[in-house]
Write a structure and sequence with these properties.
Blueprint lengths: L2 H14 L6 H20 L4 E3 L3 E8 L2 E4 L6 E4 L2 E8 L1 H7 L1
Antiparallel strand pairs: 1-2, 2-5, 3-4
Protein name: HU family DNA-binding protein
Keywords: DNA condensation, DNA-binding
GO cellular component, one term: cytosol
Length: 95
């Protein structure tokens, strides 16, 4: 499922619930939610959606590596990487 399909499905589900929200408004809601999550991660905060999972940022330590073309040893600098840890309910749904 891509983002456009997600927006369409979400709009249909909301319509079934009696909410008349257009696909355009639903897309804005999805975009805003993703933006809020990204901004929180940028600040180093966790975003925890109980039952669904937790978004966060981890530091990956610097290390030595090798250039695969030359075999020369290089230094790979420390970096931050985003992660997602699924919640208990999400794990049970996927089983």
């Amino acid at each position: 499922m891509n983002k456009q399909e997600l927006v369409g499905t979400l709009a249909e589900e909301l319509k079934k619930e009696g909410m008349a929200i257009t696909k355009k408004d639903t897309a804005r809601i999805v975009d805003t939610m993703l933006e809020v999550i990204q901004n929180a991660l940028r600040k180093g905060e966790k975003v925890q959606l109980v039952g669904f999972g937790t978004f966060g940022v981890k530091k990956r330590a610097g290390r030595r590596g090798r250039n695969p073309q030359t075999g020369k040893e290089i230094h790979i600098p420390e970096t931050k990487v985003p992660f997602f840890r699924p919640g208990k309910l999400l794990k049970e749904v996927v089983k």
